[in-house]
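Incident log, support desk, overnight shift.

02:14 A customer reports that sequence design results differ from what the structure should imply. Their input is reproduced verbatim below. On-call engineer (initials T.W.) acknowledged and began investigating.
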């Protein structure tokens, strides 16, 4: 049970990495409060939040996600298999194992770690009618649908472009890498995995006027010392305590 809770707490790290949004913002926009103590003295602070979210291809900070997870609606619970190791990253070449595109290979362009889903570019698509009104029949648009990583896709070994199972090992430098169980070759994590909505790679990011410079962040502004707050303040202001407390006696 403890392992299951740990795995659930780590889920979604890769799926929200591309958005480059802080966790505090995502928690704030997804918070749906049922009951909270009124303003004033908070004698019994209590907040009940909606936690049974149904995760889909809509990101938690979008309006579509809020429409799918309204406050007083209860949707059927979806069981998600907890994975000990996440083996797929954006930019990986994978082979589709199910559906009408079975046997085809493509590039992973999006990850939904909350549901163990990946979207492969140009594969496993469906047609949906968009823009239908009385005067206009609408248009058929092709959409890519997610694939389950446990049964729907398999990694491709870049040495021979064949599907393979993998295992995690440590190389000579102590770095954890993916290794093909069929050929024994290392399958590197693509550079595309570092891409976010703000930059292609962290090295190419250019600071904006509102960004805090890295030198300011790494600057040491506090030097710890074995002093109380009052002693530290007196030293900075040049105050010397020359008074001595008179002895007191208790009988």
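02:41 Re-run completed on a clean worker. Output:
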């Amino acid at each position: 049970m403890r392992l299951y809770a740990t795995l659930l707490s780590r889920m979604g790290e890769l799926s929200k990495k591309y958005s480059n949004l802080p966790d505090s913002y995502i928690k704030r926009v997804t918070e749906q409060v049922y009951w909270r103590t009124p303003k004033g003295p908070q004698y019994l602070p209590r907040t009940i939040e909606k936690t049974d979210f149904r995760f889909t291809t809509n990101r938690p900070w979008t309006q579509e996600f809020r429409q799918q997870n309204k406050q007083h609606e209860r949707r059927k619970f979806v069981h998600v298999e907890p994975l000990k190791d996440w083996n797929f990253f954006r930019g990986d070449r994978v082979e589709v194992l199910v559906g009408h595109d079975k046997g085809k290979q493509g590039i992973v362009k999006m990850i939904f770690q909350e549901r163990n889903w990946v979207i492969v570019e140009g594969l496993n698509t469906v047609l949906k009618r968009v823009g239908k009104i009385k005067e206009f029949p609408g248009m058929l648009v092709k959409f890519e649908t997610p694939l389950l990583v446990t049964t729907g896709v398999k990694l491709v070994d870049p040495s021979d472009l064949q599907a393979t199972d993998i295992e995690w090992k440590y190389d000579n430098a102590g770095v954890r890498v993916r290794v093909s169980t069929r050929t024994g070759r290392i399958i590197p994590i693509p550079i595309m995995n570092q891409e976010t909505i703000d930059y292609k790679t962290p090295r190419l990011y250019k600071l904006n006027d509102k960004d805090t410079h890295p030198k300011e962040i790494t600057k040491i502004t506090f030097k710890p010392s074995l002093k109380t707050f009052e002693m530290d303040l007196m030293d900075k202001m040049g105050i010397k305590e020359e008074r001595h407390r008179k002895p007191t006696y208790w009988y």
